[in-house]
Amino acid sequence: MYVWTRQGLGQTLEQYGLAQCDTGSVGGMAYQRILDTIKCELQRKFSDPNDPRLSEEQGRRVKRELFRRRLRLRELFNGVQPSRAKDLFDQLRRRDDPLAQLFHYRLASAVRDEMLSILGNKISALRDQPSATSTVRSQTPRPQTVQSQPASSLAPVPIDDSLLKAVITSGGGSINTNIWWLPVLRKWDVVTDTSGNKRLVVGFSAPDVLYISRNRGWMQNQNAFLTETVLAPIAEAGRRLEPTRRILDCGGYFTLGVLSATTLIGFFTLNGIELIDFILRHHNDFPRWVDGVNMFLRARKILKQHAPTLYNALMRTAIKEIGQRIPENISANDVCKFIGQLFGLVTGTQIFTATQAARAAAMTVLRAIPPTLAATIRAGHAVIQDIRASAQHIYEVFRRYGIHLALEEAERIVREYAHSEELIKAALTDLTRALEKLQR
């Protein structure tokens, strides 16, 4: 990009008295001095070298100045200490930062990409510890990208979970790959790279792909990303990678729920499996879990309205963990997010990992209530003697499984059941099925 100047075609900022940028050796510069020099270089204004009003000589002069600035910026970015590379990288991606605004508005895309790739290499080199394996790997020729640019010059850059959440909630997205077997790479695609690591695409921010892999978030230039994943079968003849897979949208909301409750490392520590592998392994379980939550919501609404005493008693069983955590009103997408939150919390996972004995006890109670009470129902009403007898039976059923219930509560349960028998029977059935479905 170029900024139009009125002081004379082809003039640089030197004529405004603002081009006295530091020309000293970058090797001896402190980090802040490098930033100040970069800012100074970015503040230099240039006419468009292709402007028809420029003479041929003026156009060549502008191009020479632009090229000199690019060389100087290359020196400055290469001079940034590896330990500060991520700080500058993050700063340049903040839209509200003055230096970032100059960087994006004053430089052409190719120049921006080059400078960011320099920082990306520094971040990658600092992250990867040298080893014999990495030494051998570095000597292996890397495949070329679509634009004949080495993928190694555009290495993945780690990003934090807050940026991941922002990208996930920003909606859909896709990029055209121009590959016949995968013409479009979409959000929530899972691909495998040349190292055998799975990558879950969570969004796009031109010209980058943002993804999850190895228990953290990453950002990488899309051409380099494609080279290391879907283009690899061509670039590395004879090597077969796992085919691209697309997870259900529920898996995406599940991911957002996990990140709202914990970190990717926290999820791995709690569940003993990487998030991507968990989603792929339980791909077919998400519909079952969603059904279980919806059944619980439906049953809870009926019981709280028509049988509050019974509901409060049931909350003393294994149902308590579910009832305390499921919100009153929840949308279809929020159900998937809620399930992700559960798997991101120690107490939440207990819903899915409750002991078989506790789950069986709760289901036994649920199944025992209808037949116990049904015998006392007479045309929708119960006689006094039957109410007391049935209340005693209900009292014994609950006590058998360690649930304290006063006789007065048991009598209220019988009366509530007598008033809305069919509704309560359906709700108890839903609760039983919910317990069956909400298991790993």
Write the layout of secondary structure elements.
Elements: H1 31-43, H2 56-78, H3 82-92, H4 98-106, H5 109-127, H6 132-138, E1 157-159, H7 161-168, E2 174-176, E3 184-186, E4 189-192, E5 198-205, E6 208-213, E7 216-221, H8 222-228, H9 232-235, E8 245-246, H10 249-261, H11 264-271, H12 275-281, H13 286-306, H14 308-314, H15 319-325, H16 332-343, H17 346-353, H18 356-374, H19 384-400, H20 407-419, H21 421-437
Antiparallel strand pairs: 1-7, 2-3, 4-5, 4-8, 5-6, 6-7
Strand numbers in spatial order across the main sheet? 1-7-6-5-4-8
Strand content is 5-15%
| Helix-strand pattern | HHHHHHEHEEEEEEHHEHHHHHHHHHHHH
Instruction: Assign an overall shape.
Output: elongated
Radius of gyration: 32 Å
Counted up, domains total 3
Count up the helices. 21
Mean pLDDT: 76
Please give the largest β-sheet. Answer: 6 strands, antiparallel
Estimated structural class: alpha+beta
Any low-confidence stretches, pLDDT <50, length ≥5?
1-18, 131-153, 234-241
Percent of residues in helices comes to 55-70%
Report the span from N to C terminus: 54 Å
Number of E strands: 8
Structure explained in plain terms:
Helices cover 57% and strands 8% of the residues. The chain is an alpha+beta fold and 440 residues long. Strand 4 and strand 5 form a beta hairpin. The longest helix has 23 residues, at 56-78.
